[in-house]
UniProtKB/TrEMBL annotation:
Pfam family name, one: Glyco_trans_1_4
InterPro entries in alphabetical order: RgpF
Signal peptide stretch: none
Protein name: Glycosyl transferase family 1 domain-containing protein
Amino acid sequence: MQALEFCIKKIIDYTGVNAVLLNSVESVEMAEAAFNLGLPTASLLHEFAEYTRPIGKVSRMLLASDMVMYPAKSLMSSGLNELSSSSGIRTIPNHIVIQPQGYLDFKIRYDSTWSLRQQLGLSNEDLLIVGAGHVQPRKGVDWFLETCHYIFEIMSQSNDVRANKLQFVWLGNGYNENDTLVSVWLDAYMHRVGIKDRVHFPGAVHDVGLALREADLFLLTSKLDPFPNVAIDALHSDCGIGVFAESSGIADFVVEKYARAAIGKYGDARNLAENIVEKFDYLISKNGVNSAICSKELSFDNYVINIKVLIDESIARRDELKKLEELDCFRKNFSANFYNKDIVSEFAVKNHFLSQLIKGIAVTKPFPGSDIQAVCDNINVCDFQSAVEMAMSAKVEGMPVTIIKGAPVEKIYSGRIALQFHIYFEDLIPEFCEYFKTLTDHNVDLFVSHVPELNDAHIKQLEESVSGSLHLQRFDNQGRDVYPFYRQFIDNIEPYYDIVGHFHTKKSNDVANGVGDRWRRYLLGNLMGSRAASIEILSLFNDFETGLVFAEDRHLVDEGKNSAYIELLLKQMGLCRRDNYHHFPLGTMFWARVSALSSLAKIKDDTFNLPEPIPYDGSVLHAFERILPQLVEESNYSVKRIYTENTIW
């Protein structure tokens, strides 16, 4: 990335270039380099996220570009779905426009005497159904042949004499009798369904437009194909179109513009064939409708004009960012250290947050205690200054953040504390015990639920880590850490203690690059990072209204796939769900007043006792951490968050 940024700087120095126009998601590294330099970037994206690898590349492009142009809504939806799954961003950003590319008459060479029918030895009476593209899996040559077979079969069964005039032509290279990946299977299919003599593979032609003018119907049967030029050529040639829904931007376009077309259910060749046969005469009529739509809606000159507008808007947004950085509210409240540890310069951090905000989205919180999600959910970003002012003032009502500094307190908390600790990875016991020793100034009993057998050394470490007694209970590996906590809370903790802390040997092996380890240490460091910090944190419970204390987290989260499970748990406790679940103890480690969690006794005994495997998201266990603040507040206690400066994961 640094080398690419260096090259861009040199280009700027030599040419004075003031913006970047990119034409593919494969240019994502260029987009990110330009982004880091503050260079306005407009991107034309033509790819579905489903076949773009590595996963997340499209999201990176959307975040790095100041403006994005897609040719159709289906492609935009594909990109936004990936953005949601990879970055957790559910809000639709405002920097995306829809504009199909224009018709560009291109031919390898001009030959007015050439004829596709003559080359294939076909007469003017034959009915040509044409598909096109290199013979490979994505282009759906198999779906083309299936559709053609069903058209022939349906017309034959209805005694339509035109069935015998049908000829099926695939334009494009790649069909080879020695190709065992695709071609041999196509050949086997054609022979077995009896259409081999009607199918032609002439290879690539020098003038696709001229070939399509001789076609009666064009089938776009790709598995996924953004907005292929050959389909634009077909419209320009006034061919009727057959296409699968959700397979291409062309499917969106022909429906929206009322083109002469037939749409089939995705991948359902018989359904497409039935719809084609139903209006066959209309589709092959060449009545000028499709060519007129192409002329009006797919002008290449207009396409170029719209690209220029896109670049101008990218430049205008970048100019606006420079002004927003100077706003007093932004300079006072934005925390570069909290926002993102991976961005190297303060300029880049500010640039990242503001550039996403004016798109109407956010990746992480701009300062501890921020309610940036509420801002993105509820504002229409047209006045950028107002958006920044709202973002810098929005805080979560009733859930303040205390910055932990290990400062002296008026009174050390003296209530009875139960520390519930679930062990699955016994190799982490020494690490946790070192943190537990920071509670030495408090009256703490340790309740350990463990899946593996513990040896004498483990038990000794646990005994020596707290001031009070040790209670061990072995559990089967069911319900992760939640079921053991629930069971010990109900049976051993609720009747006898004032405060409960819940911790577990979190590794998150399904998260790459050591994120699980960093997350665990972040939670421990914020909830019991030092002896002085633990005194300060637990002193929050000297306020009898405090019911829950958990670590603030910069990551933006929501209910995920847990809506039904949230409602299931709340129903058992006689509660109703809230509008959103954005703020909760992420990672399920926390301190709580025992009486604030009394409603847990209403949950059925086996609710949390789930067998493995448990999904990454979407279970009562994931719902449990999300509803904890609600349980506490419904019990008339308050919720507080804590944060130790310069900690992040």
